[in-house]
Design a protein that fits this description.
By secondary structure, this protein is mainly β. It has 3 helices and 19 strands. Strand 4 and strand 5 form a beta hairpin.
């Protein structure tokens, strides 16, 4: 567990230092007829018609109070008044157990996914021993982490109690992996770290900014 603890500390510092640079932030500020007023990465609102693309965000459809867009390679529903959607490199081609990820602006692989059928945002971390998530994320997805095995985890605030749990399922695109070990830590983390308890189920091939995960078992 010492190796994992050190990795959590290193990754926590990395994420805190660079913030949301890994992700593209998109919000819906209003609608003008069938056009969506998009705020991308905090920029001024831009009127975008269905079928048009603005700063990598394509508007697919609009209704009275929401817009469906394609951002970071995935489809997202934006609603007026809701918090911005964050998306990084896209997730593609999940047929036959294969996932293709593309690095975001910070050179990291950030992708939407699911834990136990609840939506989360993953940051791929090949140096982490297991999937790692904060207590806040665990509570948000309804994970009964306190029934897991107690462990000690190093954080920026010192050694704190954590829990080793087994996730029923972890999903990227259309690919599910079952019975995945994870660490839940009180340390604040902006993303769920997708570590080797998930990644070792795949043959991984990286070419420049593309990472291919081909499921082995």
């Amino acid at each position: 567990m010492k190796t994992l603890a050190a990795l959590l500390l290193i990754c926590g510092g990395l994420l805190a230092g660079s913030g949301a640079a890994y992700a593209q932030s998109v919000a819906l500020s209003g609608l003008l007829g069938t056009k969506a007023l998009l705020v991308v990465d905090g920029s001024a609102p831009k009127s975008v018609a269905v079928g048009e693309t603005h700063r990598g965000v394509k508007v697919l459809s609009t209704t009275a109070d929401q817009a469906v867009v394609e951002v970071g390679g995935s489809r997202q529903t934006l609603r007026m008044g809701e918090a911005p959607v964050n998306a990084g490199g896209p997730t593609h081609g999940a047929e036959n157990g294969k996932i293709v990820l593309h690095a975001g602006s910070g050179g990291h692989f950030l992708t939407p996914g699911q834990i136990n059928d609840r939506a989360v945002t993953f940051l791929v971390d090949t140096g982490a021993s297991t999937v790692a998530l904060s207590v806040a994320d665990a509570e948000h997805i309804g994970l009964a982490y306190k029934s897991g095995q107690p462990v000690r985890v190093n954080t920026a605030n010192g050694v704190v109690p954590g829990w080793l749990v087994q996730l029923t399922s972890v999903r990227l695109g259309q690919v599910d992996v079952h019975q995945v070990d994870a660490i839940v830590s009180p340390a604040a983390m902006p993303y769920v770290l997708l570590g080797n308890s998930f990644l070792t189920r795949f043959q991984m091939t990286r070419t420049n900014d593309q990472l291919v995960l081909d499921k082995r078992y």
